[in-house]
């Protein structure tokens, strides 16, 4: 799957992943009204609204980008009907040929991580048959529990040719509270990054490893250092746009060959019609606004890479 | 909810939480057969088997213990039908008067942690109405992203009188890989523990805080130190039984008043009938074996506390 993702990045010329992180306040009124008229103002109604909204965006952007990243928290907030729409979104995006990164940030002790790995990336045995629970292509994973929380994911990645992105340095303001603490003179994120490179060495694709890393766009200097520490690691970079990351901050996350990073934007794309710049599209044409925002982001990144 | 949990611990005399972490290999054959005959060897069939198995255990132990802790990974492995049974289990346990700790180990950047907090502990707004997505009483939370990943949980805890347990020192063998690394001469888990005590100070119940900590039974020395660092923090202690923790290891996790810790056992209780000691019950009476295992665990802890 990492090879397929790298191919798709090169083919689209867009090292971009669209974060499908729906909040009801992003969903245009006409979609909410229709869903509520059918299902009432219920969790099922909210889930239906989210699904129709997602579908509109995916239909508008699927040919431009290699991948999408649904954030499962945004679906879990609507309980079981929300989780069902997460699954439906994963399936629909895969049908459209998109690589799906489940932003689930799971991580637990060994036997429990195994259940997460099976549920999100692998197949669970039920009697004589086996089933894919959620069936993403990649999942994000939290490293706080150490190697034996990660290994079950590596095992499933090898079996299923799937991948993970391990949290190394997150994009949020207080990420430094623990991640930047110095251990033997080195910040913790660097130690985690070294581990990611080591785990990744055990699961190599053609150029890049099945084991990627998450490093926030809001920390370009740390990105520069981690890029060197993890040369064969694809870096998933959140924090572009709404969180403050800009094209020029991103160049350090890429290798010399222009590969090695994939930049996420969520509300900057999916709620583009709510921004002044794209307001002309209106709520009716929210998906066209998203398409325009992807094209602008692609140009911003290409320019920044050309200028370095 | 922390006050209710503390009351229930005192009333039952059992500082015990039963981990509802079902794996199909634990589910007695007669239950699997019945579920598969109704739903086929499908995810729905597996989920039904898990539900019937859980219900049998809960019916057998609800009067003995204050709380249960379903591990959501074990449900997510069965996809959406599995997650629906997680919710059904939460609801059923709450109806039985049990405090429900959702072992979800969520944690993300601010806005996303907010969605998790709302989905698991709070209420989500849908038009004019609001709904509880999963509705646990407590949730476990991963601290790697720092304060702004935790604060949304604190907000919901204050509004809804619910609680969280933050991972401090986990029970697994490689937990030390990052958690034990020395920062200014102090292990990282101690720094996280200090933060937990500080966050907890902002959300106090009568004796204990809404903000608890997870510290593994497999690390008694660390438990002793953390008990002192976090005097008003309820410690959720996994790793008893199957993972190797014993009654004598547990005494350090309790305060002088005999309170301050709640010990989890999962497969040691829910799959007791598969152990030699309880084999006499047989698969038919698996729930009676679970009840006997709870009583034995209660005695083991009481003895250890009396002997200190």
Task: Characterize the structure shown.
2 copies of one chain form a homodimer. Chain A is built from 13 helices and 12 strands. With 308 residues, the first copy, chain A, is of the alpha/beta class. Chain A has one domain: Aldolase class I (TIM Barrel, Alpha-Beta Barrel). In chain A, the strands form 3 sheets. Chain A has an 8-stranded parallel barrel, surrounded by 7 helices. Chain A has a two-stranded antiparallel ribbon with strand order 4-5. A two-stranded antiparallel sheet of chain A has the order 8-9. In chain A, a hairpin with a 2-residue loop joins β8 (182-183) and β9 (186-187). In chain A, α3 (43-61) runs parallel beside α5 (79-95). At the A-B interface, α3, α4, α5, α6 and β4 of A face α3, α4, α5, α6 and β4 of B.
Task: Quickly describe the structure.
With 308 residues, chain A is of the alpha/beta class. Helices cover 47% and strands 17% of the residues of chain A.
How does the SSE layout of this entry go?
2 copies of one chain form a homodimer.
Chain A: H1 2-12, E1 16-20, H2 29-39, H3 43-61, E2 67-70, H4 73-76, H5 79-95, E3 99-106, H6 110-120, E4 124-126, E5 129-131, E6 138-141, H7 147-160, E7 163-169, H8 176-179, E8 182-183, E9 186-187, H9 188-201, E10 211-215, H10 220-229, E11 235-237, H11 247-250, E12 261-265, H12 267-270, H13 286-307
Parallel strand pairs in A: 1-2, 1-12, 2-3, 3-6, 6-7, 7-10, 10-11, 11-12
Antiparallel strand pairs in A: 4-5, 8-9
Helix pairs in contact in A: 2-3, 3-5, 3-13, 6-7
């Amino acid at each position: 799957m990492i090879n397929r993702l790298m191919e798709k990045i090169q083919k689209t010329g867009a090292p971009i992943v669209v974060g499908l992180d729906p909040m009801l306040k992003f969903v245009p009124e006409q979609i909410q009204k229709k869903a509520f008229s059918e299902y009432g103002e219920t969790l099922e109604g909210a889930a239906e609204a989210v699904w129709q909204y997602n579908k509109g965006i995916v239909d508008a952007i699927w040919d431009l980008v290699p991948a999408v990243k649904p954030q499962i928290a945004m679906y879990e907030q609507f309980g079981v009907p929300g989780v069902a729409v997460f699954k439906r979104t994963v399936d629909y995006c895969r049908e459209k040929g998109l690589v799906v990164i489940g932003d689930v940030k799971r991580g637990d002790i060994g036997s429990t991580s195994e259940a997460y790995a099976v549920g999100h990336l692998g197949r669970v045995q039920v009697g004589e048959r086996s089933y894919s629970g959620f069936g993403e292509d990649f999942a994000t994973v939290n490293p706080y529990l150490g190697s034996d929380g990660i290994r079950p994911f590596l095992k499933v990645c090898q079996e299923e040719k799937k991948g993970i992105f391990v949290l190394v340095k997150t994009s949020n303001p207080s990420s430094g509270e623990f991640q930047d603490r110095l251990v033997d003179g080195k910040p913790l994120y660097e130690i985690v990054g070294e581990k990611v490179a080591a785990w990744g060495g055990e699961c190599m694709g053609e150029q890049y490893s099945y084991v990627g890393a998450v490093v926030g766009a809001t920390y370009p200097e740390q990105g520069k250092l981690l890029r060197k520490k993890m040369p064969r690691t694809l870096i998933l970079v959140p924090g572009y746009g709404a969180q403050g990351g800009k094209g020029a901050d991103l160049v350090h996350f890429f290798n010399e060959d222009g590969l090695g990073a994939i930049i996420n934007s969520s509300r900057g794309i999916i709620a583009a019609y709510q921004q002044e710049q794209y307001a002309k599209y209106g709520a009716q044409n929210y998906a066209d606004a998203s398409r325009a925002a992807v094209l602008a982001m692609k140009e911003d990144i290409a320019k920044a890479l050309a200028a370095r």
